[in-house]
Amino acid sequence: SNKSSGLDLKQDAMKSQTLLRSNGAQAKRALFERMNSEPLKAKDSKPKLKRSQSFGVSSASGIKQILLEWCRSKTIGYQNVDIQNFSSCWSDGMAFCALVHSFFPLEFDYNNLNSSNRKQNLELAFTTAEEQADCLRLIEVDDMLEMGDKPDPMCVFTYVQSLYNH
């Protein structure tokens, strides 16, 4: 009947909204896959599952690991860069500079940088990323300097993730 199908659609929409709020991009993919998949035939007892494109990563720590690996792969061979976390390894600005330089090698000479010039390094990396990749400055240089040797890992992670998405 029309009444029950309308109710089903409303329930589906509510489920979809809940999914989108809880799982973000993963839920969007699942919803689009469901919308684009053919309706099940009566003889099919079990739906065929489609493999997700999320590399099998469901935890935040898995996503952080993937992003750390990506950062390491982009900064191989750069002096004074050893990316092991999203905090202390980024405090002097060298990792930010190496990451940005890996995409824009003509913008500055990485070999002329000095790890003791934190402010200059951070300013250079953030400005270059902003001008060349249109990457918003999600961290301010002064905030990074204020945080000292252990910047907030969520701040660093969020900024690096925005670079990754550009």
UniProtKB/TrEMBL annotation:
Alphabetical list of InterPro entries matching this protein: CH_dom, CH_dom_sf, F-actin_Monoox_Mical
Residues annotated as signal peptide: none
SMART domains linked: CH
UniProt-listed Gene3D superfamilies: Calponin-like domain
Keywords: Coiled coil, Phosphoprotein
SUPFAM superfamilies: Calponin-homology domain, CH-domain
PROSITE patterns the record matches: CH
Region (Disordered): 1-21
Pfam families: CH
PANTHER family with a match to the protein in the record: CALPONIN HOMOLOGY DOMAIN-CONTAINING PROTEIN DDB_G0272472-RELATED (PTHR23167), SMOOTHELIN-LIKE PROTEIN 2 (PTHR23167:SF37)
Family: Belongs to the smoothelin family.
Protein name per UniProt: Smoothelin-like 2
Organism: Nothobranchius korthausae
Organismal lineage: Eukaryota, Metazoa, Chordata, Craniata, Vertebrata
